[in-house]
Please model this.
Amino acid sequence: MPNLVRPAVLALAAALVLTGCGAEVTSGEGEGGDARARGGHYPVTVENCGQKKTYDKAPQRVVTNDVGITEIMFALGLEDRMAGYVMPDDRGDLTSVPWKDAYRKTKWLSKKTINKELVLDARADLVFAGWNYGFNEGEGFSPTELERVGVDSYLLSESCRNGQGKARGVMPPLEALYTDLRNLGEIFDVEDRAETLVAGFQKQVAEAQAKALKGADRPRVFLYDAGQDKPLTSGLYAGPHDIITKAGGDHVMKDLRDSWATVGWETVVARDPEVIVINDYGDTTAEEKRRFLKSYPPLAGVSAVKNDRIVVLDYAELVESPRNPAAIARLAAELRRFAS
Model:
C-alpha cells in the first residue's frame, strides 16, 4: 500500500496539480469563487482530454466501465459515490485484490457492454469510461450522447484522442494515471487522498527503477495482447510502454504513436524482441497465447521465443490502473532474472 506523505510534501504536490501533469485545476469565479474563499470547495474546473469541465458538486451516482477505471475510484475510496460498475467476468480474481471490500460493496451492473439504457436505469449522474473503454460512436454510446440525456462523463486519460483520426494518447501512461487521480481528487474533494496515492506510486516506481537493468543490458520487449493474423499491441501511450521502460526494458513499439493498435508480425520479427509480455485476459488463456507464440512459424527465429523468455501480466496491471506501479516492480524482477 502507498506510504503516507508528510504535510509539506502534500502541500508541494497540491501546488503541482495546478501547473503540472496536464491536470490543470482552477477555482470557480464570481459567486463560486467567493464560496471558495470562505472555505467551500466547489465549483471546481478540471481539464479532461483537452476540455475544461466545471463541477458544482461531487457526483453521487457514478457508473464505471472496466477494471482499471473501477479500481481508480476504489483506490480513492470513492465506492460510496458509485451506482455500480460494468465489467466482463474475465478480469481475473477480484477477491484477492486490495479493493476486494469495495468490489463486495459495489453493484456489478453488467458483465456485458455498457450502454445508455443501463446508465439511465442506474440513475447515474456521471459515467467514468474511455474511448474503446466503453465509449464508441459506432455503438451509439459517447459523452455527447450522454450529455443529451443529462448525464455527465469523465474520460480515462489513457484513452484521450490525439487528433490523428481515432489514435489515442496525449501524455505518458503513468502521467495519465496521476492526472486522473488528481482530477478526480478535485472533483470529489479528496485531494489529499489523491496526492498520497500519487506520492506512494512515484516512490514505488522510483524504487523499481533503481534496481532495473540499464544501458546495454536492457532487453528488447514486445507486448502481445491478442490476435493471430495480426497482433494487437501497445504503443507509446498505453500502460505497457511505461511499465516496460521503467522496469528496465526497451519497448520495441515505442515509435507507435497510439495507445493500443494492431501491427504486422513482420514488424515484430524485424525488431526481434528478447522478451515478450503476454496480456492475460479474454477467452484465450495466457497458456494458449504462449503456445501460439512458440508454435507460430514466422516467430521461430525471434529471440524471446527461442529462449522461452515470456512473461505473463494481468490485464488490470497493463491498462491504466492503480496496479501499474506494482506491475513495473514485478516485470523488473523478471527481466533481472532473465539477465542473470
Notes: Confidence is low (pLDDT under 50) at residues 1-38. Residues 191-211 form the longest helix (21 residues).
